[in-house]
Design brief:
Blueprint (H helix, E strand, L loop, with lengths): L2 H7 L4 H7 L13 E4 L14 E6 L2 E5 L1 E17 L4 E5 L24 H9 L5 H8 L1 E18 L4 E13 L8 H9 L9 E10 L2 E10 L9 H38 L5 H11 L1
Antiparallel strand pairs: 1-2, 2-3, 3-6, 4-5, 4-6, 4-8, 6-7, 8-9
Helix pairs in contact: 6-7
């Protein structure tokens, strides 16, 4: 461990730093998003390269078939997606491991997501309605990778050649791509290195089943080259953490208001006494 790591994290203990960065050690803000482009046309009707990585800055989207990515933080967040409105009506705080309590905006945990195995057992016993099944499908756990991305041979929607270098981004991964990073993260963990000590080579793979076509992210860690953690990296890491803190504070405030409203409703319908009501609200702060 170098001095910059100790300065940033206050320790040279690998386990403690790994936990702080969301490493696999146990049981959105204003950042540009790194995404996989699955469309052959953009909103303006321009033909754009499908099956590529994409970053949008100041309204300009940039595409690249290959990229390099350096992970600073590995996180998780539960979100509910409403396809009709293309919005997320509920989301949890951002967590770094599944031992944390993922409180959500509506006063619950994990947006109401039930463990997959447990839910299948409930379905098999006929204890779940069709509506409840649909509601569970709308709740997703996303992996959020905060890091730096570099595009060396990229193009704009107009076809102009361009590049991106060390751009701070959030890569939110769901569906088949949720586990795309798992082997990469484990391989770095095994070296007892931190994620930001290695670049990761990215490309995409086209998959097809019947008429369905989708793209999968391939990630290959460059393990023979270790990156020194710099003062500039310290600023970047702090920026990522502050972004997460801001997001979590907003969710926590909504969680608190939802709990207060629920408690007050319970008092109004007579299921809580005045003493219980005051105790519950004081506990929420």
């Amino acid at each position: 461990m170098n001095k910059e790591l100790v300065t940033t994290f206050g320790t040279d203990n690998w386990q403690e730093i790994a936990a702080a960065t969301g490493a696999n050690v146990g049981k959105e803000g204003l950042l540009p998003s790194l995404k996989m482009n699955r469309e052959s046309e953009n909103d303006l009707g321009q033909t754009v390269p499908i099956g590529t990585f994409m970053v949008t800055q100041n309204g300009v989207s940039i595409y690249s078939k290959v990229a390099q990515f350096r992970i600073f933080l590995n996180t998780y967040q539960y979100m509910v997606y409403d396809a009709k409105t293309n919005t997320f009506p509920n989301k949890s705080i951002i967590i770094k491991n599944f031992n944390e309590q993922a409180i959500d905006e509506l006063g619950g945990l994990k947006c109401g997501k039930i463990n997959g195995k447990e839910f299948k057992e409930l379905v098999a016993k006929g204890l779940v309605s069709k509506q409840e099944e649909e509601a569970q499908k709308a709740i997703k756990c996303y992996r959020g990778l905060y890091g730096l991305v570099t595009f060396e041979n990229a193009v704009t929607a107009d076809g102009d050649a361009t590049t991106i270098e060390n751009l701070p981004v959030l890569w939110r991964m769901g569906g088949d791509n949720f586990n795309a990073a798992q082997d990469t993260l484990k391989s770095i963990d095994k070296m007892r290195h931190l994620y930001f000590q290695h670049w990761i080579a990215l490309d995409t793979e086209r998959k097809k089943q019947g008429s369905n076509v989708w793209y999968f992210a391939n990630m290959r860690p460059i393990l023979n080259k270790e990156i020194e953690f710099s003062a500039e990296d310290m600023v970047t890491f702090t920026m990522f953490q502050e972004s997460i803190n801001k997001e979590n504070l907003g969710v926590a405030n909504k969680w608190r208001e939802s709990k207060k409203a629920t408690t007050a409703d319970a008092f109004m319908d007579g299921s809580l006494s005045e003493l219980e009501l005051n105790d519950d609200i004081s506990d929420l702060g």
